[in-house]
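Please, is this right?
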Amino acid sequence: MMTRRLLAATVVVLSLVAIGPAWAKEAEKAQEQSEYQIGPEDVLDIAVWNNTSISRTVPVRPDGKISLPLLTDVQAAGLTPAQLREALMKRLAEYVPSPEVSVIVREVHSFKVSVIGEVKTPGRFELKSQATVLDILAQAGGLSEFASRSKIVVFRPEGGSVRRIPFNYNKVTSPGGEQENFFLQPGDIVMVP
């Protein structure tokens, strides 16, 4: 009896050890995806410890790059602040011994979402944090009386194409439909027919 329990416990422990690294990698990937990614038009504070001649506030250009003394063009858009910090430390190591760099997003200007169609105030909205479809519809003043609530579509740019994501307002606002209210991404267009 005791041997079976010990054997069962050993199997559970070995199973956890075997899946541990895979689970850790998935958790790390999810963490990276949830971190803020720098975008064009954001404003960054770059500080290089004990080096005020390189430290400065820089805008991210429309091409997604920043410029610093000694470093001409550095890709910033699409990276998290931590990833940009690592890239700057590697590039600056050629000129500065053991550079310590910090990257702070001072202003967010790259998170823009458009709302068109049957809403009270259509337009392009600059967001400062994550927002759901319901959040942006509220920011656009809500749906008009002629809106086709079950046929709303979110157009999401993905590489060279655009993905259509259906959004049913009636389903989302009914009991149990909350999980259908998803987060928007920069560049999304919400179309309310």
